[in-house]
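User: Predict the structure for this protein chain, please.
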Amino acid sequence: MGATCAWRPTARRYNRAVTGAASSEHELIRKARAGDQDAFAELVMMHADRVYGGLRRFGLDPDEADEVAQEVFVRAWRGLARFEERSQFSTWLYRIAFNEAQRRLSRRPASRAEPDPDRDDDPVLSLAESPELGPDAQTLDREFERTLERALAELPADWRAAVVLRDVEGLSTRDAAEIVGIREAAFKSRLHRGRMQLRALLEPYLKLEEDEPA
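Assistant: Here is the predicted structure, written as structure tokens:
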């Protein structure tokens, strides 16, 4: 596929949605396997937002995520004949995205912070949710998002991936382990370690939350 192919994603195009698609995903995959670039373009637009979002949550900056997302779909096009639909197409795409993101992240130094072995709760899900946020609460909410992003960036790449896939993306343990390419038991171990280190990194923020008057 050349660089001028219409389906290739470019910067800031990831919020476009496909509506009223004439073909099912299965039919689009069948057509794309036969060389139909328009069918593959529709598949790209169906999944581009999630791929781009996943790359960003894995720690890539916007320009990196744009670049890597393009490579993800190039690889997907070239490998489409090998996709046997034994898993969801989105899971297959996310596995490619995960591998490409890890190549970038592996070049960065890993955090050496030690987790607290006595804490086993999920620091993301342990936060209270407020259905109605006033200005002050909205400010705190945005501050927590920035704090969480910084904390996630300090996790080793494999622990971060486990936390993002399971707790941020909301995937099942089975699907997340499939994307990473490891057994569920090994994935759960990474998730546990990631949660523990994330808990330690977020402890000062969570302590402030607990100390606020009711």
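The chain has a mean pLDDT of 75.
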